[in-house]
Design a protein that fits this description.
Blueprint: E1 13-15, E2 22-24, E3 28-32, H1 36-41, E4 54-58, E5 63-65, E6 69-71, E7 79-81, E8 83-89, E9 105-113, E10 115-116, H2 117-126, H3 131-134, E11 140-142, E12 146-147, E13 157-162, E14 165-171, H4 179-186, E15 197-199, E16 207-208, E17 214-219, E18 223-230
Parallel strand pairs: 3-15, 5-11, 6-18
Antiparallel strand pairs: 1-2, 3-4, 7-10, 7-16, 8-9, 8-15, 9-11, 9-12, 13-14, 13-17, 17-18
């Protein structure tokens, strides 16, 4: 048996609807600027004919389950929500075609890509990595995993409210790179594995939250999600 200097971290996991087993998280990938209207509100445009999809990651330790209360994070004055469809990968795939993408899908979830927007934009404008703005504690919020093996979602409403007021309301059919395209493209750069999550991007309407705010959201036919913002530590 291997002896460690200190106890290794627990495996990050999510519940699976209708099952006692949990979905162990391997990696968390996120697609950047995957709705035209959101790209525009961030001061950017996307021309799919010349611009490739791009990605950033969050560590599995950033994962927090829907329904949690999280502290307002340190180092920011502009803490934003981003409502997203999440793909749960259930089998290995490398350099798969779009036609081969469906079998990699185990299911879906609803997710929140919480963002320290001021730190992200500062890094972006300086040409630096986005890690401080994106990859921080409790920044990857996710619902239960809903098994849909091999199902390619092409149309579903996606919406989010803050304190009961709608802030985001769109449809995943507006994704610039759809589910098949995301899986195929990401598999060009990584050996996708069971346990990988892919946050597919957020529609327009992102904005700040403050302590005391309650976020609710959903992807139609998938799952509800909720998060409460507490005071900073």
């Amino acid at each position: 048996m291997t002896a460690y200097l200190f106890s290794p971290p627990a495996v990050s996991s999510l519940p699976i609807r209708g099952q006692s087993q949990r979905f162990a998280i391997h990696r968390i990938f996120c697609v950047g600027r995957n709705y035209h209207a959101h790209a525009a509100e961030m001061g950017r445009t996307v021309d799919k004919s010349v611009d490739p999809a791009f990605y950033f990651t969050k560590s599995p330790q950033t994962l927090v389950q829907s329904g949690a209360t999280v502290a307002y994070p340190p180092g920011t004055q502009n803490y934003h929500y981003e409502m997203e469809l999440v793909i749960a990968i259930g089998r290995r795939g490398f350099r798969v075609s779009q036609e081969q993408a469906a079998p990699l899908i185990y299911g879906y979830a609803s997710g929140l890509d919480m963002t320290r927007r001021d730190l992200q934009l500062y890094a972006r404008d300086k040409g630096r990595p986005w890690d401080l703005g994106k990859d921080f504690e409790q920044s990857a919020v996710c619902s239960e995993i809903v098994p849909m093996p091999g199902v390619v979602l092409e149309r579903a409403g996606i919406a989010l409210e803050v304190n009961g007021v709608t802030q985001q309301n769109s449809n995943i059919d507006k994704l610039i790179w759809n589910v098949r395209e995301i899986i195929a493209d990401l598999s060009r750069f990584y050996h996708l594995e069971a346990g990988d999550l892919i946050y597919t991007g957020t529609p327009e309407g992102v904005g700040p939250v403050v302590p005391g705010d309650k976020i609710t959201g959903r992807v139609e036919g998938v799952a509800e999600i909720a998060l409460t913002i507490a005071a900073a530590e």
